[in-house]
Fold Phosphatidylglycerol--prolipoprotein diacylglyceryl transferase.
Amino acid sequence: MQPVAFIPSPSQGVWHLGFVPIRAYALMIIIGIVVAVWVGERRWAARGGTPGVVMDIAIWAVPFGLLGGRLYHVITDYQRYFGSGRDPVDALKIWEGGLGIWGAILLGALGAVIGCRRRGISVSAMADTVAPGIALAQAIGRWGNYWNQELYGRPLDAFWALEIDQGHRPRLDDGNLDPRYADVATYHPTFLYESLWCVGVAVLVVWAHRRFKLAHGRVFALYVAAYTVGRFWIEALRIDDAHHILGMRLNDWTALVVFAGAVAYLYLTRDKTGPETVTVGPDTAPAAAPPAPAAPAAAPENAPEGAAPAKPAAPAEKAEAAGGREDAETPAEKADESGRDEPSRDTAEKDTAEEDTAGGEAPAADDPGDGADRASDDDRATGATTSEAAESEAAESEAAADPGTAEKADEPGKADRTEAEGSAEPKDAGNAAERGEAEAVKDAK
């Protein structure tokens, strides 16, 4: 039987990169794992989980899942590896196919539980998160059966039928080709059925999660229940060797039991609520203590009670204030202040000496620094007098040569002398007032 249209089988499922074999079956499994982790990470981040946790859990779940899937296959199909004419070493050749999904889910879940406990996160939250990704991984992994030309269904005469080479058709126990299928070239592509079914399951659980706000493991339970429904009818189409119980294949019985368990879990947890831990706990190292607040500035002694203490000026404000005062003082004002300070200092020194003498104590020797300052002031005054005398002689010489020019030249000098005399009068008045006060204090003593 050869239909007009069909799905062709691959010519080979192994490529060699040098001496390293690249097997399509293994590639499909690896791609499925990568997709499952990627989808899981995105969903975990969307619910506020700590980034990278799904990858950490996968490090535990994937090896456990592969081991469980292989063990289930070897146990349920032991006649292929043990017995007369069989080589038990073939049980280790996982690349030749043979992974039972039930064992993969069972031990894979155990590995995930270990990883979640180590990271301190909710097992149910992680299961709900990765459920759609696992379904997609199964959808991709089933294409490994296509490359190996295995696990197909009954003969089919349709355009979507799968062509199977004679070397991969069913055989008898003695290794010869089963005569019932010797002339049959096309069969049900059960790998394609299950792949499409798993994609539908992934879409279903994502929709149900958003529509009904499922949590606490109910998303994962829905995935398991939906998958087992499809696996039940797809398993019934397969013609490969399998154990039968009461006329039904072993995997069908397994699907029924797992389906019942998933539905029971959905019912028992229908009202379960509460938070689920999705973030990794903080480090145990104590956080650094915050800096102590600055002590408030002390209030002035004469400040009224209840008054708020004055805020200390910022360094920039202090600098601006100091700069403003310095800029406001002209050289003339500074000279005026120094002139007023000289008599006051001399008067204060005389008063101090007289008080010490009246008290019976010898007057202290003058400070050499003060004497040096006064000598410096006297030198500057002498120099200023000499300079004024030189200027006066030059002006008289010019006046003798040209009387008109001397008058013009003398006008600014007159103006300067007038200003100097006007400014000297307040200084003399101030100095006289200070000397009068000092003498009054002396007379009073």
In short: The radius of gyration is 53 Å. The first helix runs from residue 24 to 46. Residues 270 and 390 are 116 Å apart (CA to CA). The first strand starts at residue 14 and ends at 17.
